[in-house]
Amino acid sequence: AQSVTQLDSHVSVSEGTPVLLRCNYSSSYSPSLFWYVQHPNKGLQLLLKYTSAATLVKGINGFEAEFKKSETSFHLTKPSAHMSDAAEYFCVVSLAGNNRKLIWGLGTSLAVNP
Amino acid sequence: DTGVSQNPRHKITKRGQNVTFRCDPISEHNRLYWYRQTLGQGPEFLTYFQNEAQLEKSRLLSDRFSAERPKGSFSTLEIQRTEQGDSAMYLCASSLALTSGYNEQFFGPGTRLTVL
């Protein structure tokens, strides 16, 4: 069965410092992995996706994630946080070839302090 | 705005009443999904359509829930005899049905339901 664990429910960083949001997955198949962001009163937006190509994936707004099969991890990083990055972030897994069904983590709330 | 839209954005109802939500997907998208999100949780899949056909339903979708997409464009989600446990954000998403690659799902802003 597929599952996703986001290791931190809340992360707080200072503006200009690096961001690390951790995600571990479990999948019996070759997974596709995604990070979505949810700003207050806005729809979920895809940040980036891994679909069995390059293991280091670049997304929007300067975010990156690295797929590490040996560690079953897909951590999200950004070198320098901006105030506008404050939001809820979700790590998501889907079955390869079955992109209809997304399995979502519980989310990590990112706070960015001035 | 050509994104996914949902109406209403907020709905407050009394227990036992019926409610209906509407989702308008991106116009060229033939897949449409409904999710439910409660506080502190990620979205949970409810159901999805390809064109007008409802192809998959989660066991979360009890008999009180029904979804339609009559002409393959907009969709409605109806909850009958609402219960307090139905209070949640109901999210709609749409995507293209591609033969390969990831079919990115684009999400609407959601309808927040409060059952008193």
Keywords:
heterodimer; A: 114 residues; mainly beta; six-stranded mixed beta sheet; 12 strands; globular; B: 116 residues; seven-stranded mixed beta sheet; four-stranded antiparallel beta sheet; 11 strands; 48% strand
Summarize this entry quickly:
Chain A has 114 residues and is mainly beta. Helices cover 0% and strands 58% of the residues of chain A.
In words, what does this structure look like?
The complex is a heterodimer of chains A (114) and B (116). Chain A is mainly beta and 114 residues long. Chain A has no helices and twelve strands. Chain A has strands at 3-6, 10-14, 19-21, 23-26, 31-38, 45-50, 56-58, 64-68, 73-78, 87-95, 98-104, 108-113. In chain A, strands 2, 5, 6, 10, 11 and 12 form a six-stranded mixed β-sheet that branches. In chain A, a hairpin with a 2-residue loop joins strand 10 and strand 11. The mean pLDDT of chain A is 90. Chain B is mainly beta and 116 residues long. In chain B, 0% of the residues lie in helices and 48% in strands. Chain B is built from no helices and eleven strands. Chain B has strands at residues 5-7, 10-13, 19-24, 31-37, 44-50, 53-57, 65-68, 75-79, 88-95, 106-107, 111-115. In chain B, the strands form two sheets. In chain B, strands 2, 4, 5, 6, 9, 10 and 11 form a seven-stranded mixed β-sheet that branches. In chain B, strands 1-3-8-7 form a four-stranded antiparallel β-sheet, with no helix packed on it. In chain B, a hairpin with a 6-residue loop joins strand 7 (65-68) and strand 8. Chain B starts with a strand and ends with a strand. The mean pLDDT of chain B is 91. The A-B interface holds A 9, 32, 34, 36, 41-46, 49, 51, 90, 92, 99-102, 104-107 and B 3-4, 31, 33, 40-45, 48, 55-56, 91, 93, 95, 101-110.
